Amino acid sequence: MENRLESIISEAIDEFTVKSNQITDGIRYVAGREGKQTKVSKTIIQNALKQICPKGKIKTVTADFTTHYENLEKLIPFCSSPRSFRTAWDLRSEILNKFDADILVNQGAQIIPYNKSERLFQTIQQGTQLGKNQRLLSFVRHSEGNYDDRLNDQGSFTYQPPNDATGMLRYRWSQYLSKKLEIPLMVIAVMWFSYRINNNLNQVFVAAPARIIDFNQDLQNLNDSLHKPLTLQIVNRTDAYNFLNIINSLNDTSFEIKTRRELPDALSREWSFEKINSSEKGKKIKRFAAKRGKSCPGTLCNHVKFAQLTNRKIAFGHIISQKWIQSFNFLLDKKDHPDNLYLTCQTCNSSLSNNFPDSDLRNEIESTGTIGDWLRDHEQSIRDA
Prior knowledge:
By secondary structure, the chain is of the alpha+beta class. 41% of the residues lie in helices and 14% in strands. It is built from 15 helices and eleven strands. The protein has helices at 4-20, 42-52, 58-73, 82-89, 98-106, 165-181, 222-225, 237-252, 265-270, 273-276, 280-291, 322-327, 346-352, 359-368, 371-384, and strands spanning 26-28, 38-40, 112-113, 128-130, 137-141, 156-159, 186-194, 203-213, 230-234, 314-318, 341-345. Strands 3, 4, 5, 6, 7, 8 and 9 form a seven-stranded mixed beta sheet that branches. Strands 1-2 form a two-stranded antiparallel sheet. It has a two-stranded antiparallel sheet with strand order 10-11.
């Protein structure tokens, strides 16, 4: 029986193979590499698909995928903070002095010496490094002055593909998997500097996790976007671990339980229980639910539609009750999180009291969505309600 990760990857392979048929024969040019051209043909694309995401080998591709991220997870503790990575980027020099190094460390950098046993910390000139069986990107190496080397205020930058059709298609496959999994895939971005430690060690590295973003337009037509760069955003180690936890969860379950991407902290604070209970924000959520024809997940009211109730008859329920959470201090900061909240009628909310939702109610909440789910999918509609 397929687990959820295998099921998603299976669908992704089938759909991506069909989309790849859009790609026509011709020449592609990568920005910043004037005079260099890449030949593309249907035969080359078909061979690339067999290497990157072969049909009929779902378990192998899934196993390679999980091994790939298990290997990257071991390197996350050696990654630097987004702030320090930006400072290192902005040095605009291949040479690091002791004053630069001290500033970076104070900002959360991990400055790692050359290590001949780990590819991440080697001065390999090739821009991208690949994971198991060359299906996914592991590392991208930034060298000052290469192509569009601007890091914007959000910590985002573009990274051009290699001059071969397989490498270009691998970029699009990474984007397509990000879309299907509903979580951006992760790579590690790394820079190296000259810094003399002793006669044998004179190079050091600063690395940070980065996620693939802004890919929807690239996936509309692969023929048009094949040669386009990836857009990457530097993230912190917590974000990286959250991504890895979701991958592990998808790989461990065959149940029809939604695996949710992390809500941004600012959004979860803005729409926490204390901010939406008896407030204009709460009224927006109730109006949104009424307009969308949503119903109470409880059974006492026979799943009454929210449009039939006044705002005073609609409540915000806690999936894990407030009293239970107070008994377990490690959950206190999640008590009022939007993912622990759902919309219900006053009657059903009162009947639940301090108990956990039973299996029927949990299934209804899963189907209807938590407040966090609604914010992920309909944030602007809720704000406009």
